[in-house]
Amino acid sequence: MKLNLLASAAIAAALFTSPVMADDDNDGAVTGAAGGAVTGAVVGGPVGAVVGGVVGAIAGTALDPPPRKVVTYVEQQPIPSETIVVEEVVEVGKPLPKTVVLTPIPEDPTYAYAVVNKQRVIVDPSTYTVVQVLN
């Protein structure tokens, strides 16, 4: 049984990571898929490996740090005199409240930013998830 479980995890990890490895920008997806597949296999067997690989790939991709050009753009933007204040802790992986107005990044519309609690925050505009907090 353990041999089948390990073999299933190895196969699932190979299936989910091999096609992604051709693109260097998806390191988070590769790590997430491999880790998710192995964890899923341990918890749920072959089906768990498949589900874990998919979930891990999505999570790994979602939290990749933004490209340097995005960070530079946000760092160069002035901080407005009145910034948005939220009670929630602003941290990577957590969503901002939908009441926060996001400013799109012209060079890369897959990211947006806001100044929240006097901090520049880079966000995934489709989910409002914080991708990076700049000091």
TrEMBL record:
| InterPro entries tied to this protein | DUF1236, Gly-zipper_YMGG
A Pfam match is: Gly-zipper_YMGG
Q: Where is the signal peptide?
A: 1-22
Residue spans crossing the bilayer: 38-59
Task: Please list the residue ranges annotated as the YMGG-like Gly-zipper domain.
Answer: 28-62
Keywords, in A-Z order:
Membrane, Signal, Transmembrane, Transmembrane helix
Stated name of the protein: DUF1236 domain-containing protein
Question: What is the native source organism of this protein?
Answer: Shinella lacus
